[in-house]
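retry 2 of 3: previous attempt timed out while embedding C2G. Reduced batch size to 1 and resubmitted. Inputs unchanged:
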Amino acid sequence: MKRILTYGTFDLLHYGHIRLLQRAKALGDYLVVALSTDEFNESKGKKAYHNYETRKKMLEAIRYVDLVIPEECWEQKISDVQKYEIDTVVMGSDWAGSDKFDYLQDYCEVVYLERTAGISTTKIKKDLGLQEPVNGLNQLPETKQERDNDKKN
Ligand code: C2G
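retry 2 succeeded.
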């Protein structure tokens, strides 16, 4: 039983995430996803659109995912590898060579899979005109008229 582990925020789940999870699972038999908690994201200066519980439920509904655990800090990875008897840690190629993952090669295999081009949570937010939350409320996307007016000004 080959056990795979990957880390991420998986906010506004999209086909780049799904392809990563699909290819990661194809490398073994059991896939553990360590999902960034809202507090950990805050420490990274990130704020997910969906909270941890929602992102966890969405991941648990994906056929490739066997277990979702919280990612609470950068330093938990060695204990995760040992606790879940991980054979391979998999990340997208944007993490290739990162000091956040390469050191795990002393404990397990580390594989970087080609990142899916053309899609990202940031791109989705930008394309939908979702500004950063104001007073905890997401600003409504501009209307087409407002966007056209902006272009004229
Ligand atoms: N990914 C991908 N293709 C995309 C977007 C994301 O392959 N178009 C991969 C990323 O490389 C990552 C995983 O999908 O391996 C999850 O992406 P994010 O949710 O953006 O995760 P990230 O912010 O990179 O958090 O401790 C590490 C962090 O938790 C990783």
